[in-house]
Design brief:
Blueprint (H helix, E strand, L loop, with lengths): L1 H4 L5 H20 L18 E2 L2 E2 L3 H11 L5 H22 L9 H15 L3 H9 L4 H14 L5 H15 L2 H4 L3 H11 L6 H17 L1 H9 L7 H10 L3 H18 L12 H11 L4 H7 L2 H5 L4 H14 L3 H7 L3 H5 L7 H15 L4 H15 L8 H17 L5 H18 L5 H18 L2 H8 L3 H11 L4 H11 L5 H16 L6 H11 L8 H15 L7 H16 L1
Antiparallel strand pairs: 1-2
Helix pairs in contact: 2-4, 3-4, 3-6, 3-7, 4-5, 6-8, 7-8, 7-10, 8-11, 10-12, 11-12, 12-14, 14-15, 15-18, 18-21, 21-23, 22-23, 22-24, 23-25, 24-25, 24-27, 24-28, 25-26, 26-27, 26-32, 27-29, 27-32, 28-29, 29-31, 30-31
């Protein structure tokens, strides 16, 4: 009952409750002849006691007192330290319960208790010191109290709770005994633990449990059944983030699957089936080619929720770090390409990481066929709102170009050409790392297409001349370039919109279709930019509309080509 009041928001109420707890402990420690009422008799697993005096929920009591000893309220802090001092006396007396009260050993016990308490300066020290006198189930209660405290609004409670867990994890043989109960405590509280240090401690605890007792951990999680359970899903994600725990988890899942011979480990036939496929290919001796021929991984994956797809991709990221595992999972590449269709930044980013890992362990001959499909899927990601996703997709696009073998080069050429203008625009990206990646990718594209002029202009970062060069080099592609440019007029970044406006005006000069209707459509696309939040863009859009709407003759192709190619020709001479 008193423990409930120690959680009060009122500092005065909390202090009074702790003082009364301290007084009760004092009475038990000082007057050992008192007999506690125990209607059911003493069981083997009964709470700690001294001469028949029981302390119910000793682990919870100790956990709360240790947390309160670091409380910001000085009165509560002092009361908790006093109670801990008395509790330590009580526990020490249990060691010498055979002695009479007049025995000199009792004085030594009191002095030892005083010395011990004075030397305990932190929650770590207290957890370690009291751990010597607790039974396994009491230690479990201390851990559960610490986990629960991490959901509290008090920062000091969270810091103290993390320290308690960190100390317990140093001696897992003694503290981490009841795995199912600890897993249940994590599951119940995980979604309410928001602070990063506290979450890190919980993740560390979960990974330690997984490495030590993977079977108990997996069985405990499977009891929560459906992967729609967000707390359980978060726990799976932690275990899928490191190679050693993941391999152990997949091994246990495979074992459970073989035992039950069912795809309903996670609740339904379809739910979690992709995870079971991952477990089978990662832990069994089935050749990967045979696995790909008999099991349609995408057939399972497409019916999963976005959260489960993200979990599977995280597992593949972790597994693909090891060369031999990357070689086994490469048969899933075509299925992973399909995950890029989901409008989820998390899924797309994880898919790119899987590709980067897997392609890094493949020869050009092995990788070339899939790069054709991958390049096409990467292009739309160049304009994603996430700078991280833009940079990753552009860098992967560059890698993909370099992995194509000669017989697939012609097929890749079209995708590379479609990527030229987006790469040019993103050379002006506001995120410097994206701008740098775009320039490097455009340089690789110029080398791939064997365009010396484009290569030179990219090396010298002459963006406005690159646009002209693209239009002259590919006259049949002007219309497509213009369509791409019009889409970028709506880009979220002002610098990219500005480049798109400039290129649009340039592209119109090279259009074969100079009809009034075609030019009107271009002006309609530019019109909203006259009210852009950036004054420079408003002005540039207005000027470009005037130029587009005025009568003109297209420049002679020879002269334009000469202007575009002059720097390279001069350099070659």
């Amino acid at each position: 009952m008193l423990l409930t009041f120690t959680k009060s928001q009122s500092a005065a109420v909390c202090e009074r409750a702790v003082r009364r707890i301290g007084m009760l402990i004092y009475l038990m420690a000082r007057y050992s002849s008192l007999e506690a009422w125990c209607p059911f008799g003493r069981e083997e697993d009964s709470p700690a006691c001294y001469r028949g005096i029981h302390i119910p929920k000793l682990g919870q009591l100790l956990g709360h007192l240790i947390l309160l000893s670091s409380c910001k309220d000085k009165d509560t802090n002092c009361a908790a330290l006093d109670a801990l001092y008395l509790l330590l006396i009580f526990l020490l007396q249990q060691r010498c319960s055979a002695w009479t009260e007049g025995n000199p050993q009792h004085q030594r016990v009191w002095r030892a208790a005083g010395t011990s308490c004075l030397s305990l300066h932190s929650t770590r020290d207290m957890t370690k010191a009291f751990g010597k006198y607790l039974k396994p189930w009491e230690k479990t209660d201390v851990i559960l109290t610490a986990i629960k405290a991490m959901t509290d609004s008090s920062i000091s409670d969270k810091e103290g709770a993390s320290s308690m867990l960190d100390e317990a994890m140093k001696d897992p043989d003694s503290w981490l005994v009841d795995v199912p109960k600890i897993m249940s405590g994590i599951h119940e509280n995980l979604e309410h633990i928001c602070m990063a240090p506290a979450r890190h401690s919980i993740d560390s605890l979960l990974l330690l449990l997984t490495n030590r007792c993977p079977r108990e951990v997996v069985i405990s999680l499977l009891k929560y059944s459906r992967l729609a359970d967000s707390a359980a899903l978060a726990m799976w994600k932690v275990m899928f983030s490191l190679l050693q725990p993941l391999e152990k988890v997949l091994r246990e899942l495979h074992r459970e699957y073989r035992k039950q011979r069912t795809h309903t480990l996670f609740g339904t036939v379809t739910e979690g089936s992709s995870i079971l496929c991952l477990a089978i290919i990662a832990t069994s001796n089935i050749p990967s080619e045979r696995f790909a021929a008999t099991i349609c991984f995408w057939g399972y994956l497409r019916y999963e929720s976005l959260e489960v797809i993200s979990l599977v991709l995280q597992g593949l990221i972790t597994l693909s770090q090891r060369p031999e595992m990357a070689r086994k999972t490469k048969v899933l590449l075509e299925d992973i390409v399909k995950t890029l269709q989901y409008a989820s930044e998390d899924i797309q980013m994880k898919a790119l990481l899987v590709f980067r890992n897997l392609l890094g362990h493949m020869t050009r001959e092995e990788a070339s066929p899939i790069t054709l499909k991958l390049a096409e899927k990467l292009l739309p990601l160049f304009s994603n709102e996430s700078s991280q996703l833009r940079e990753s997709s552009i860098r992967l696009f560059r890698d993909v170009m370099q992995m194509v073998v000669w017989r697939h080069k012609r097929q890749m050429r079209k995708n590379v050409q479609r990527g030229l203008l987006p790469l040019l625009f993103h050379m002006s990206d506001q995120t410097q790392s994206v701008a740098k990646a775009s320039r490097e990718a455009l340089l690789s594209a110029a080398e791939f297409l064997e365009q010396k002029q484009l290569k030179y202009l990219t090396q010298t970062e002459q963006a406005w001349r690159i646009g002209e060069c693209l239009l002259v080099q590919d006259r049949n592609g002007v219309e497509e370039y213009l369509c791409q440019s019009l889409l970028y007029l709506k880009d979220a970044q002002a610098t990219v919109r500005e480049e798109a406006i400039r290129f649009t005006g340039l592209a119109v000069r090279h259009l074969r279709d100079q009809s009034a209707e075609r030019l009107r459509k271009v002006c309609d696309a530019l019109k909203p930019l006259q009210e852009d939040i950036e004054p420079s863009i408003c002005s540039l859009a207005a000027q470009t509309m005037l130029i587009v709407g005025s009568p003109r003759k297209r420049p002679a192709s020879g002269r334009t080509r000469a202007l575009c190619c002059w720097p390279c020709k001069a350099r070659e001479r």
